[in-house]
Amino acid sequence: MMIEQSANYAYKLKYIGNPTFDKVRDLSTQFYRELPQALQDELYEALNRGIDILDSEPQMTAYLYAFGKMHQAKLEYAFGKLPKEFLELPEINIVDYGCGQALGTMCYADFLRENGYSQKVKTITLIEPSDICLKRAALHVSTFFLMLKLRP
Predict the structure, then answer these.
(1) Mean pLDDT per 10-residue run, the chain (152 residues)?
(2) Under DSSP, is residue 34 helix (H, G, I), strand (E, B) or coil?
(3) Taking CA atoms, which of 14, 71, 104, 141 is between 20 and 30 Å from 111?
């Protein structure tokens, strides 16, 4: 699986230290807010309320800025409903279907850490129709789960 490597974003993420979803979103927020308002509006409109397949780095940035907090809140609620027996499994495999930029996987890593679970994620399979998002997802996952085997 290809991982985004040469973009400025990848360099910034590499040195983020103790990655969290909020820190990742802050990278996008900072970039997005520095754009002229007309360009912010254009990018937001191109997202089509978040349902279109993303095909550019600026769209990925706009998506994370515009919809990241909403996804995070939904995921935190859902993860809180998982049975304790599941969360206490010593290891799991994740299949992130329609992963986008791997928001769900990043939020799950935060959930485990914030709630003191030591569950090991053995493998992560990322499934996404957008090549650029898949590469960004692989970058995010490799930052949150060091020494992990990614599956295409």
Answers:
(1) 73 88 94 93 89 90 95 97 96 95 97 95 94 94 80 58
(2) coil
(3) 14
**Token output for 101:** 């930029």
Long-range contacts: 51-54, Cβ < 8 Å, 24+? 53/129, 53/130, 53/133, 54/100, 54/130, 54/132, 54/133
Report yes or no: 117 and 80 within 8 Å, Cβ to Cβ: no
Number of H helices, E strands in the chain: 7, 3
Residue 104: HSE in the Cβ half-sphere, 13 Å Cα cutoff: 15
Place of tokens 């002229």: 36
Domains recognised in the chain with CATH numbers: 8-151 (3.40.50)
